[in-house]
Each structure stands twice: as C-alpha cells, then as structure tokens.
Amino acid sequence: MAKLTSASKTSAQKVADKIAKSGKSSNPETNLPTISTPVNITQLPLSEVSLDVPGLNTLTPSNVPELLPQFDITAYQIEDPLNPPESLPQATQSQFDRGMGIYEGTQRALKLTGAAFDTTRERFNVVGKRAKAIGAGIVSATEIEKVKGNYIDYQSQQQATEQKLVTLDVSRNKTVVDRTVAVYSKTELEEKLKQAEIKSEDAKLKTAESQGKLTEFQQKLGSYLPSK
Question: Pick from 23, 26, 123, 192: most CB atoms within 10 A?
Fold first, then answer.
C-alpha cells in the first residue's frame, strides 16, 4: 500500500474541512462523518526495490564509457594538415591487415551471435505458440469429453425410458388380464350361484316329493290298521 506524505495528509485534511464547513452551512444539525487518515501504511523504499531481471545484461549511461574501446581524442590533434606530427598514433600495414582481419572476424561472430539470438527468440515464440495450441487442444478435448459424457447420459436416460415403457406395457397387459380374469371370475361366481340355486330348488322338490310319498304311505297304512 502507498504511504501518505505530509502534503497528502494536509490536502486530505483541507478537503475534509471544506466538506464539514459546507455541511454545516447548509444544514447545521447534520453530523457529517469525519474523514480519518489511514495509519500504519508502509511502502518499500524505492532504493530497495529490485529491478534485476535474471539473465538480462545491465546497461546504463553511467557504465557505457567503460565498455568503449580506449580512445584519446587529444592524441589525434592535427594543427597543420600538410605537416602531420610524427607523434600521431600509427599502425603498420601488417598491424592494419591483422587488426582488420580480427575486427572483421569479430563482427562476423557478433552477427552470427545476433542471428543465434534472433533464432532463439523465434524459437521461444514458437514454443509460446505451441503452448497456446496445446492449451487450445486441451480445452477442445475437455469439451469433447463433456459432449461424450452428455451423450452417455442421454443413452442412459434413453435406456431408463425404454425400461419404463416396458414396465408400463407389462402393467397395462397385467391390467387387461386382471380385468378379463375378474370378468370370468365374476361370471364363474354367478354361475356357481345359479347352480346352487338350482340345487336348492331341486333339493326342495325332492324333499316335497319325499314328504308327499310319506304322507301317502301313511294314509295307506292307516286304512289297514284296526280302528279302536
């Protein structure tokens, strides 16, 4: 969190005083909240903030001169162009050829090194793009698996629905059979009732016939008995 300076505290207090005065002038009875200054706000000193990037060479205007080749400009001072002084730094032809060969070779090495860094940069770019492609592939694969899961859920629900239809069909058939059996059972019971009624009537007729024969027999038997 940022640390408030004394100037910031003074500005905040002035703003609070203005708000308080404005509130009192418009409505003296209104109690405005007091603006408190945050306390215990600390900040890491700028001198202690580390800006060193691992692997990154440090180059500032202050250390540029020490990286330059040694060069004394006063040693090349020429007053008379037609009569150059012998004190001017000089190089022999062999030194020149040898030095130029070294410098040209060094420049070629630096160019190759720069090309290597350019190639490495492109390699890192490709690595980043490959990582993004892998990430996109993982996201796509995740979505595909989600769709597969949804399809499995659909098939499971479809089978559950089919099973419910089978159960419903069996229940319907059972209901039809139960109703038919109930009709037959009812008919059977009615027929049994009729048969019972017929047997009852037949039994009554047989009883009456037997009673009549008994009475007739008794009457015939009575005619043969002597009178008292």
Answer: 23
